[in-house]
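ok, trying the design again with the full structure, not the truncated one.
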């Protein structure tokens, strides 16, 4: 499996729409939230408004990437990288939000996708990365730990126990 992160462009429209349709048809919440918050039927609008640029309402700038399996030419997931943390993201959200489409889970994709996202964090000058997952999401926790994540603590947010992991990019090497 040869994975790479790509930006949402018309070149990948069919692959991205296919993944989002699969997710929507499942009824499961789309993660990261940002890729499901807009109507993608107007794909140009979707691409142009996917990332946060206006920080006036307390949001932070971010970068969104889709994870393409080059060998099969399908989008298998997505990551959203927040360029810095505000108070809310420091508690629950972190620097990277990631999700793998339902039909591609349990194949090691999340671990590889997070590794690619960490390379993007380095490019942005983020050397200490916070990732957060629900305590019940064992697969997500393993993917974070596989990339050097160290559990700092657990917090309860809206009745859900969230685990907060830090990845020190100066101390870990990337997973290939």
């Amino acid at each position: 499996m040869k994975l790479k992160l790509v930006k949402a462009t018309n070149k990948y429209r069919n692959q991205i729409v296919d993944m989002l349709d699969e997710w929507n048809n499942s009824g499961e919440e789309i993660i990261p939230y940002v890729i499901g918050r807009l109507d993608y039927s107007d794909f140009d609008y979707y691409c142009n408004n996917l990332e946060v640029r206006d920080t006036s309402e307390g949001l932070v700038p971010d970068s969104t990437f889709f994870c393409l399996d080059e060998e099969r030419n399908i989008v298998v997931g997505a990551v959203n990288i927040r360029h810095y943390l505000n108070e809310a993201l420091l508690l629950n959200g972190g620097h990277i939000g990631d999700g793998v489409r339902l039909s591609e889970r349990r194949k090691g994709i999340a671990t590889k996708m997070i590794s690619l996202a960490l390379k993007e964090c380095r490019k942005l000058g983020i050397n200490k990365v916070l990732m957060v997952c629900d305590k019940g999401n064992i697969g997500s926790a393993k993917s974070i730990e596989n990339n050097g994540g160290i559990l700092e603590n657990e917090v309860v947010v809206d009745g859900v126990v969230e685990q907060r992991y830090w990845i020190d990019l100066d101390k870990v090497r990337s997973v290939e």
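Keeping the full-length input from now on. The CA atoms of residues 84 and 145 lie 21 Å apart.
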